[in-house]
């Protein structure tokens, strides 16, 4: 039992020592990054000196605008290059996938499902509507269909044309007119 306690105590001590080393390393890295940042800013961004006259201020503004435009153009160019290379990578990976050839299709099982069960599976608990397809159909009475048949027979223009064509049809029209 003493050995176990000694081993756990040693483990705890090593763990705390490693954590302390890690903390000091992280602090050193943060300080190094800060120094690197300051050096970069000093190199690329000279300190701003504001001139006293209005003319000199306008010149300074024009220079700054020109720098902004050039940096913006570079940023746009790099974005376009990046988009182009990503598109090429996607195309090449698709070609590689196609060249590998054999596509394994997973075996599909037939599942018998009603429309309600399918909607419940897709929509989850949101599905409250019952799929009774016959409930929404319009009910038609027999009398309506018979009336429509009579109208179709009377209103068929082909029959009237055939009856009125030729001499007999004209004779009928003449007699009907009297």
TrEMBL record:
It holds the Pfam family Troponin. The keyword Nucleotidyltransferase does not apply. SUPFAM superfamilies: Troponin coil-coiled subunits. GO terms for biological process: cardiac muscle contraction; skeletal muscle contraction. InterPro entries: Troponin, Troponin_I, Troponin_sf. The keyword Cytoplasm does not apply. GO terms for molecular function: actin binding. Keywords: Acetylation, Actin-binding, Coiled coil, Muscle protein. GO terms for cellular component: troponin complex. Residues 23-102 form a coiled coil. It comes from the Eukaryota. Binds to actin and tropomyosin. Belongs to the troponin I family. Troponin I is the inhibitory subunit of troponin, the thin filament regulatory complex which confers calcium-sensitivity to striated muscle actomyosin ATPase activity. PANTHER family: TROPONIN I, TROPONIN I, FAST SKELETAL MUSCLE. This is Troponin I, fast skeletal muscle. It comes from Grallaria varia.
